[in-house]
Amino acid sequence: MEIEYHISSEDKIFLKSKKNVFAPNTTTDLLIDSVRKKINQPAKILDLGCGTGAVSVALFYEGLINEKIYASDLCVDATECCEINFERHQCPGEVRNGSMFEPWKNEQFDVIIDDISGIAEEIAAVSPWFPGVPCKSGKDGTDLVSQIIINSPEYLSKNGFLFFPVLSLSNKRVILEKAYQRFSFVEKLIKKEWPLPKELINHKELIIDLQKRELIEFEERFGMILCYTEVYCASQPKLTKEIKG
Q1: Which entry of 113, 118, 214, 232 is 20 to 30 Å from 159 by CA?
Q2: In whole angstroms, what is the distance from residue 243 CA to residue 245 CA?
């Protein structure tokens, strides 16, 4: 199937996708905007959890790709779609299949963009965002992003940057603790609120229970449940002797 994605207020692209491939969403938009804000010259970029390749193609059109972009996803259908979309948009890239950093042993990157699932697993299971897409993110949504934060310094070049999203439908405190434990500098670049999708309103009891257990957070305003997405940039990994715990 074909999907339409706006890479800016004026420009849109068409992407090859499949039902079980994660579709671009608000987090995708915010990651692209965050990289645009922070990176002002071509870089060696890794797109983790690439899905259709929307982030990669958008950054290619932005002129931020140095020679080629690197992309990977656990879903075979996703990497196949990503390869098709790279060819369609003449975006030079190398696409690999595998979990998190497994496909990239002995590689280092100037920029790593984490777009791997980061919401509580029970919410992911009933949400409209993961149709047939695996989401083993843990009860508070921190398992995957925490692993990426902890392991990313091994794959970052000197003065490299890790971009990662934090959704309020996960345990923000745990994720940021991992980030500050592993990096000397952690900067919030952008935040956007959004209403809980109608598909999840039917699971309000689950949402409220997870918040009572301090696994997620949200606000009720204007008769709506409001969640948010933040994007952070981490840099200057700490030396092993500096890391506590």
Answers
A1: 118
A2: 7
The DSSP annotation for 16-42 comes to E--TTSPPP-HHHHHHHHHHHHH--S-
User: Does the pLDDT value for residue 128 go beyond 50?
Assistant: yes
Check: CB of residue 48 under 8 Å from CB of residue 22. no
**Non-local CB neighbours of 202 within 8 Å, separated by 6+ positions:** none
DSSP tally for the chain: helices H, then strands E: 8, 10
Which pLDDT band, with edges at 50, 70 and 90, does 69 fall under? very high
CA distance 41 to 222: 42
Nearest C-alpha neighbor of 58 from the set 81, 85, 83: 85
> What three-state secondary structure class fits 92?
coil
Measured CA to CA, the distance from residue 157 to residue 155 in angstroms comes to 7
**How far, in Å, CA of 82 to CA of 20, rounded?**
13
Confidence bin at 9 (pLDDT 50/70/90): confident
The residue behind tokens 């449940």 is 225
The answer to whether the beta carbons of residues 88 and 13 sit under 8 Å apart is no
CA dist list (Å): 147 to 143, 144, 154, 203: 6, 5, 12, 28
Cβ neighbourhood burial of 80 (10 Å; 0-12, 13-18, 19+)? middle
Residue 240 pLDDT > 80: no
Distance from C-alpha of 132 to C-alpha of 20, rounded to nearest angstrom: 5
Q: Which two tokens stand for residue 215?
A: 């696994």
